[in-house]
Amino acid sequence: MQSEPRLAAAGITRRYGYRTVLRDLSLTLHSSDVVVLLGPNGAGKTTLLRVLAGLLRPQAGRVERHAPVGLVGHEAMVYDALSARENLRFFARLHGVAADVVDTLLARLGLADRADDRAGTFSRGMIQRLSIARALLPNPGVLLLDEPFTGLDRASTTVVRDLLTELKARGTAMLVVSHRPEELDGIGTATSTLERGVLA
Question: What is the per-residue pLDDT across 72-131, written as a single tens digit (0 to 9) for each?
Fold first, then answer.
């Protein structure tokens, strides 16, 4: 018997002016689902993640979230003037998360030795890892990832792949936008393509 969905979207339509980006789209994520989302640039993949995360409101349809949602988008959503540790402590307070989780995540993502450096001095790959740490603070049951391996070197890619594998084993449902699905070999449980606002 299949578990209750972690996230369910039904009949989602999203338009920008006269252009329909998402068209009557439905999607359900259950525990340990890892759906790899493909599609050409401009297909609406980022818009879909933002709608599912609650950052954009659809013109039609509904999204039901039955677990905390973490989002890693193109924008890191961290503050350049704050250190890595200060960034995570700030977001931990917003989520009501104990501060000791911060150092655990910094170590897990290989940022412990730069924890007190300003985020504005970080490389693109380090910012990406900090963004992933931020998204994991609320212990999300659903993780939405937009090109999670952007800017990562080989060692960091391995760290993130191992982390995603662990999250899947713990039951986290994931929707992962990627132009390089081979990076998710052995992790993804399904592949879907978004084109002209429709999922295939």
Answer: 998 889 999 999 999 999 999 999 999 899 999 999 999 999 999 999 999 999 999 999
- Which three-class secondary structure state does DSSP give residue 73? coil
CB 173 within 8 A of CB 30: yes
CATH architecture entry for 1-67+141-200: 3-Layer(aba) Sandwich (3.40)
Span 37-61, average pLDDT: 94
Long-range contacts of residues 27-30, Cβ cutoff 8 Å, at least 24 apart: 27/52, 27/175, 27/192, 27/199, 29/5, 29/142, 29/173, 29/174, 29/175, 30/2, 30/3, 30/4, 30/5, 30/6, 30/173
Classify strands 190-195 and 7-16 as parallel, antiparallel or unpaired.
Answer: unpaired
